[in-house]
Amino acid sequence: MSETLDPNELPEDDLLVEPQEATKETSETTVKMEEIKLQEQVIDFRDKYLRTLADSENLRKRLQKERHELVQYAVQGAILDFLSPIDHFENALKFAGQGSAEVQHWATGFQMILEQFKEALSNNGVTSFVSVGTPFDPHCHEAVEMIETSEFSPGSVIEESLRGYKMAEKIIRPARVKVAKASSLDEENEEQ
Hints:
By secondary structure, this protein is an alpha+beta fold. It contains three helices and six strands, in the order ααββββββα. The protein has helices spanning about 10-95, 100-125, 185-190; strands at about 125-130, 140-150, 155-160, 165, 170-175, 175-180.
């Protein structure tokens, strides 16, 4: 009485509908999951690309800055080597007026050469700076002596024994200076 159904007797549509729908839903879910994973990978790769691009740009800028500084320091070193001979020229020319006419003619030629050196320095951004009358600044000045005086305010530069130079705004050689300090008479008057 129990009737068994032969699978061959069932309509074909009934057998295939359920597995197709299940397979279709599973494949859609799988595709969506794959799509989400791919989108996450795209975002991850994009972030890595942008980070790498930024690192590359920062490295390029740093190398460019280091190259510029290296060239500037090389130029600065060469310029420092020329400052002492220029100082000697200037000191020698101070006394040229005391010599004979021939010495004065030679001095005129040396003065022209000195001006060419100064022009070359100026063309490379190197200038001397005035120290006398300014307040002592340890970044710009090297104190070689303290002198008691009432003519200048304490802490101001009263004499320059060696001119200072800067390249752009950077001090490449500080000026050697004598600095005023309050005279002992002034200190005694202040105490009373």
